[in-house]
Design goal:
The protein has 14 helices and 14 strands. It is an alpha/beta fold. Bound molecules: pyridoxal-5'-phosphate.
């Protein structure tokens, strides 16, 4: 009982800080309009930026992949679980996203979390130094810890501070690691300047393009393509459960880097390969992303982003200067953020409240996440609900 009581006390502390997280259960496919916990809502919570998660062609591909290759892979990639669908997808990904390096090769993972653990632990070990942006995703933080490298954290986006840390380092192996699009702020890292530093200091530059792949750059090839970077120092991680609408992740880099991961990355080696059907469906997704339909979806998404920037600026709260599909509205305290999220929920809008430890204390926020599946009417509803909530909060302050 003593052990359980410790946990109960811990949970009470979480409640007291307004930090209890609750899962909602979707009764229907991820889409702009969906049923959640039995209620119809407009969802602004997903990372399904292109609205592909429920695309009929991807659903068909998943079913076809299962018919061809079965329900499960049956093993790890090195011990029997590597299927033709995985191999084909890796070729597709290298061709689609690997234009930043000569001899590109891709490696498919079951999740982005694993891809980040694998990349950082394989490239940086004891004696190496990892240079990590202060707002990097939790999976990069965990990968850095697991690597046992020395970790230097530089202030968010601060290239001068990073430069000083690199100057002061005599580590033989240096790895700079950053999100491209920051997941809770939507801003984009100074990619060209990061690469210049990586080249100057003989460092790897690992870029996690979870929120850029499919959305940014020509044909949705990602943030590295948008910035037109090219270098053998670059290692790109992309995820496939967000804009690509399915699941999994990949690393693309020079063939030698990928071969090193296959040999050495424990989070790659010691886990069962994902179902081949998901790889088969991602190959279908790449054809949509890189085709006319992808361009049309990205164009619509850009319109929605521009309009959301304008409407968030008209609220009394603090928008973040983001040009991506992640449009945060900083409220401040956990309580006020939860109250606003609850008001939007009453209006049938699902806009998640993001609190510490996901974001720094005092910067709790609503995270409006846009998808090409949203319509302008969906944004009309968001605008009306935010303006009602603003009036209510002004009236409350006056009282
Ligand atoms: C979502 C995300 C991941 C993890 O990817 P999964 O495939 O969901 O495990 C990694 N990095 C960033 C920046 C993310 O937003």
């Amino acid at each position: 009982m003593e052990l359980l009581r410790q946990l109960e006390q811990g949970l009470k502390d979480i409640d007291a800080q307004g930090l209890r997280r609750r899962r909602r259960t979707a009764d229907t496919a991820c889409a702009a309009h969906m049923t959640v916990d039995g209620r119809p809502i407009v969802g602004f919570a997903s990372n399904d930026y292109l609205g592909l998660a429920a695309h009929p062609q991807l659903i068909d591909a998943l079913a076809e992949g299962a018919r061809r290759y079965g329900a499960g892979s049956g093993g790890s990639h090195l011990l029997g679980g590597h299927s033709r669908a995985h191999a084909q997808l890796e070729d597709d990904l290298a061709a689609f996203a690997g234009g930043f390096v000569d001899a590109p090769r891709a490696l498919y993972f079951s999740t982005g979390y694993m891809a980040n653990l694998a990349t950082l632990t394989a490239l940086a070990g004891r004696g190496a130094t990892l240079f990590s942006d202060a707002l990097n995703h939790a999976s990069l933080i965990d990968g850095a810890r697991l690597s046992r490298a020395d970790v230097k954290i530089y202030p968010h986006g601060d290239v001068d501070a990073l430069s000083a840390l690199l100057d002061a380092s005599d580590a033989e192996t240096k790895v700079i690691v950053s999100d491209t699009v920051f997941s809770m702020d939507g801003d984009v890292a100074p990619l060209a300047r990061l690469l210049a530093l990586a080249e100057q200091h003989g460092a790897w530059l690992v870029l996690d393009d979870a929120h850029g792949f499919g959305v940014l750059g020509p044909l949705g090839r990602g943030a590295i393509a948008e910035a037109a970077l090219r270098s053998p120092h670059l290692v790109m991680v992309g995820t496939l459960g967000k804009a690509a609408g399915v699941s999994g992740a990949f690393v693309v880099a020079h063939d030698t880097v990928i071969e090193w991961l296959v040999q050495r990355a424990r989070p790659y080696i010691f886990t069962t390969a994902s179902t081949p059907a998901s790889a088969f469906a991602v190959s279908a997704s790449l054809r949509i992303i890189g085709g006319e339909e992808g361009d049309a979806r990205r164009a619509h998404l850009r319109e929605l982003i521009a309009r959301t920037r304008t409407l968030l600026k008209r609220t009394p709260w603090q928008p973040v200067d983001s040009h991506t599909a992640v449009q945060p509205l900083i409220i401040g305290s956990n309580e006020a953020t939860l109250a606003l999220a609850a008001e939007l929920d009453h209006a049938g809008l699902w806009v998640p409240a993001i609190r510490p430890p996901t974001v720094p204390v005092g910067t709790s926020r609503l995270r409006v996440s846009l998808s090409a599946a949203h319509s302008h009417e969906d944004l009309d509803r968001l605008e009306a609900a935010l303006s009602r909530a603003a009036d209510a909060s002004a009236a409350q302050e006056a009282a």
